[in-house]
Design brief:
single chain, 140 residues, 3-stranded antiparallel beta sheet, 3% helix, globular
Length: 140
């Protein structure tokens, strides 16, 4: 994999999508991938729509088409005051309709900027990032 971390391994990040899954990595440093070791064993939290299926049998729950607008919302759920405890929600929408939502144990630090990463592997050939209209995309 080289010296650059995979998106799943970035420090202090939350992700949603893939085969209907969400990830939360609360550590301040990027995780290193190790052959034969699952990220969950290194402290990464993972939630999945179909945990009963083996990894190789899972497929993306969404079929994207040209012109679809994806939205993502990450929010903290009221809880403990410590910056990395409590709970959070991450949701993904397609054309304003919520497609996936996961509750995560823990949250990202609220005193740092958040950046979007789009990973729709092999589903689209072009993505345009939009900085405004966030609430509009999530129907809020």
């Amino acid at each position: 994999f080289g010296s650059l971390p995979h998106a799943f391994c970035l420090a202090q990040c939350a992700m949603i999508g893939g085969t209907g899954e969400a990830w939360l990595q609360k550590e301040e440093t990027a995780l290193k991938l190790e052959l034969g070791k699952q990220l969950e064993q290194a402290g990464m939290q993972r939630k999945h729509l179909t945990p009963q299926l083996p990894e190789h049998r899972r497929t993306a729950p969404l079929v994207l088409r040209a012109g679809d607008v994806l939205g993502c919302r990450y929010e903290e759920i009221a809880g403990e005051d410590a910056p990395t405890s409590g709970k959070s929600l991450i949701s993904m929408s397609v054309n304003g309709d919520v497609a996936l939502t996961f509750e995560l144990d823990g949250k990202l630090p609220s005193n740092k900027p958040v950046y979007a990463i789009v990973d729709v592997c092999y589903c689209v050939y072009q993505v345009s990032m939009m900085s405004k209209e966030v609430d509009l995309l999530m129907g809020g």
